[in-house]
Task: structure prediction
Amino acid sequence: MHAAVLHAFGPAENLSYETVPDPEPGPGQVRIAVKAAGVHLVETAMRTGLASDTLPPRPTLPAIFGSEVAGRVDAVGPEVDPAWLGQDVVTSGGRSGGYAELTVADVTSLHRVPGGLSPEAAVTMVVTGATTMCFLDVAALTSSDVVLVTSAAGGIGRLVVQHARRLGATVVGAAGGPAKVAAVRDLGADLAVDYDVPSWQEEVAARLGGRKVTALLDGVGGDKARAAFELLADGGRYVTIGNASQGGFAPDPGELEERGQSATSALLALLSAPQERPGYEVRALAAAAEGTLVPQVQAFPLARAADAHAALESRRTTGKVVLIP
Result:
């Protein structure tokens, strides 16, 4: 089979498209003929060899990344019901190896793909969608909220904008560059702004006409999060789900208390309750199948995995990045 393999830590071009042996499923496992593999931002950091408390351990080289996979079961291991053969499935089971034409997964991690849902959409929703579900539960948005979403053109941001609009909340979407701002506007955001423009905060304040942001849902972190936080009203909620900018920002606890604001990490909530994740995955897949949430996918051929990594880490992508064998 073909796979994108990392032999040495470093830049994106270190991902090499090559032929490797086919994997075989072990006890309790299935083999999946991959139709779509999700690419995660954390994998770009792992590729460089970066080590920190917030990242998974450095992989053993050579490595094949990819734990988010959708495809068809083409072989089963010992102790696995043969009825799984031929089933269209999706998994985020934590096993690496998805940047390939074939991969293995624990049968306990599988979800059957709902009818009518594409592999690209399924692999997007099983992680990005599930994370969004937790994000939205923590944020507890209502129709009376004025919601500011940063990184609003990203995989999670797009789903958050859709949900908030469906609730009837007032939605401000912030993204970087004219193309991404146009994408956020097309989602139905009441206001879409370019947070690469220095005056973006003043534009938001003016366009809201005296209304204040009551919920800030942040996926970018760093200086942009700091700027967005300045728009948050007294009593407002600041909920984080990521740090795409890799910059540091945390509200001052004293200021939060003085202004009656709250700050919560939805990602921490998700990581601290792993038993809840399968439920979020089921809800996310169902929402996509029903059309309640529509994921955006930017697909690259598996042979161009290096290009996918380079585009993702330079923030030139819109929506979820997916590899197609």
Notes: The chain has a mean pLDDT of 91. The chain has two domains: 2-112+295-324, 128-271. The radius of gyration is 20 Å.
